Amino acid sequence: MNGADGLDAAPAAAIVGDEAGESELFETRVLQVAQDAHGLRLDKWLAGVAPEFSRSHLQGLIAQGLVRSAGRVLESASRKVAAGQRIEVELRPTAQSSAFRPEPIPLSVLHEDADLLVVDKPAGMVVHPAAGNWSGTLLNALLARDPASAQLARAGIVHRLDKDTSGLMVVARTLRAQTELVRAIAAREVHREYVALVHGLLPEAPFSVEAPIGRDPVSRVKMAVVAGGKPARTDVMPLATAVIEGRRYGAVRCRLHTGRTHQIRVHLASRGLPLIGDTIYGGRPELGLTRQALHAVRLGLRHPVSGLEMVFESTLAADLQAAWSRIVPR
């Protein structure tokens, strides 16, 4: 086949049998190698008889011991197949193809009506399936909670929080609501406020960081303040400072005017104030926190259908509250 691997198609095999596996996600095929396929590599032959899968995925199935012949596991992708040989392969779906499935994951819902949900996302939950996190996401939970959400792009998700950031998110339940919420976010009519704990000497007066954000030119897994990046502005309100065991810490409240990837984390780190626990941007796991100390605490918006002004607030997650109480006076 002329796919991503740039390979010619392997000659078709004779299909001897096709049986359902123990799960509807798996399919076991028993195939016989055709005469003109004699001597082909096992992985190339499989790519010809199962063209719906990439060669790399099929190589993975071989490595997992899911390809057998005469009761023996065929362990090498480079092994040559022989004409007339019967080969059994357990075809498992790619992680991507299994991602958009409902999963009965509990959600903390602060508000629900016919048009939208407001959820309080826990730290550790990924919002949308992606490499390394193809299940257990907010999207999977939404599909299980409301099957009708499958008719909406991204199950109604209109904005995101990082995996280890906790707090408030609004999710659309209808196409009309989704369209209007996307417009409102783009027009900066949805107001989002966060609280965070930082390392370093915090200024006493409120300040703003207005600096463009783009992909870090050195590390592609990070964002950075870079010339030519997308405009971004974060308003920062210092709330408290503390010195604990000789180290300076601060608590801040941040308001986003834009919603760039990792915006608060990047902007505060650029001022020498990395978030506690944010090892990607210079923070350290301290005060009992092993994730970045960031929580979406307040969400304000106009209801996309009724026009009613709505404001929601969220309490801090337990790990963040414990660290917060050591810095912010009661």
Give a written overview of the molecule:
This protein has 330 residues and is α+β, with helices and mostly antiparallel strands. Helix content is 18%, strand content 29%. It has 7 helices and 16 strands. The chain has helices at 42-49, 55-63, 95-99, 138-145, 175-186, 263-270, 318-327, and strands at residues 14-20, 27-32, 67-69, 72-73, 86-91, 109-112, 116-121, 166-172, 191-199, 207-210, 213-215, 223-225, 233-244, 247-256, 294-302, 309-313. Strands 6, 7, 8, 9, 10, 13, 14, 15 and 16 form a 9-stranded mixed beta sheet that branches. α1 crosses α2 (55-63). The longest helix is centred in the middle third of the chain and has 12 residues, at 175-186. The chain is elongated. The N and C termini lie far apart (67 Å). Residues 1-24 have low confidence and may be disordered.
Number of helices: 7
Which structural class should the secondary elements be placed in?
Answer: alpha+beta
Give the % helix: 10-25%
Q: What's the gyration radius in Å?
A: 26 Å
Q: What does the main sheet amount to?
A: 9 strands, mixed
- Our estimate of the beta-strand percent is 25-35%
Which blocks of ≥5 consecutive residues have pLDDT under 50? 1-24
